[in-house]
Amino acid sequence: MKIAVVGTGYVGLVTGTCFAETGNQVVCVDIDAKKVEKMKNGIIPIYEPGLDVLFNRNTAEGRLKFTTDLAEGIKDAKVIFLALPTPPGEDGSADLKYILKVANDLGPILDQYVVVIDKSTVPVGTAEKVHAAIAKNASTDLFDVVSNPEFLREGVAVEDFMKPDRVVIGTSSEKAKGVMTKLYAPLVRQGNPVIFMDERSAEMTKYAANAFLATKITFMNEIANLCEKVGANVDDIRRGIGTDSRIGKRFLFAGIGYGGSCFPKDVQALEKTSKDSGYDFQILKAVMTVNEDQKTRLIPHIKAHFGGDLKGKVFGMWGLAFKPYTDDIREAPALYNIEELLAEGAIIKAFDPEAMENVKGVIGDTITYTKGPYEAIKDVDALLIMTEWPQFRTPEFEIMEVLLKNKVIFDGRNLYELDQMKELGYTYYSIGRDTVK
Hints:
Layout: E1 2-6, H1 10-21, E2 25-29, H2 33-40, H3 51-60, E3 64-67, H4 70-74, E4 79-82, H5 97-106, E5 114-118, H6 126-135, E6 143-147, H7 157-162, E7 167-170, H8 174-184, E8 194-197, H9 199-230, H10 234-242, H11 263-276, H12 282-294, H13 299-305, E9 314-318, H14 333-343, E10 347-351, H15 356-363, E11 368-369, E12 382-385, H16 397-403, E13 408-411, H17 418-424, E14 427-429
Parallel strand pairs: 1-2, 1-4, 2-3, 4-5, 5-6, 7-8, 9-10, 9-12, 10-11, 12-13, 13-14
């Protein structure tokens, strides 16, 4: 099947590459000429584990191509994926200008039936807006608009795409349903469900899923904060409730809040949709408030430990991305902590396996970027852990002991056991657990 994918961010590039891997002819379209030229030359613009293997194989075999020309990209396509940004506006609503711009551009150049698929996370009613925009310049016999939300986790997006828990498809067209069934057949051979519903329900499903997961994370962070007050251990509580099948084990790890491209903006957008519909979604407002505070949860502990004066204090920081296995720094807690610490006059040396260039592009040289984790902690007053990269889980504590000026760790991801830290003689602050001194 000939497929066009408009937009080559995390979702678009993974979508295009994975569909090429299942034998389709895919053309990815992007207005960024430099980005397209890099991809034509085999340079992947994002970091996503496993994507490079599929990307290189399918470009070499001619199934995955790139262009800046929309008309060229959609020529003879049976389906067109819209995988475009939907950034939050000032009022919290999802900005649809990129999607609607492409929808307007599609109308005059459609010459045969095609299924136009909203892959981006979009508010309820977007499929209707896209349909109306295309229909201004094209017969409604030439297209159907389908909602097909993505459920990809950055860091494991390729696996999520190739082995989906489920595929959600919103359409009221039997013709479009037939095309979508054929398209996804290779990915659901093991019986993974393809769930058909109306377009509005599919759009709401994505927001509901992300809002629920964000709520689950935030609830555990609230429990962790209470644990610190009453002397309980959040890790024990996580194990105690996670074995309840009604709750499940995932998304119960306490830490310094969620970030990334999805949870923050999707929770915000759903709350805005609720407000516009005359419904007061109180849980979501609480989730946003708590998560905002949680990101800098360690700052009061840091200030207290150093007597309230951080001027001239040097901190090593491990992790800058919002989560491991990605270079995505959108809404990353590390950035919030950097901002607060710099405002207090502190100095920061940071290391992240993938995200340093992206951070440098945002905050420049206001901090020092190091070549490795141990260089980041040489002669520092304390280590701050912001991202749970695997290599930070089992460091060489003997080396750290020599490098650190003080054996002090502020761990925003609860990587180490309290008994271990006590035995090694560290002062250790974490989330929802006793402080080791």
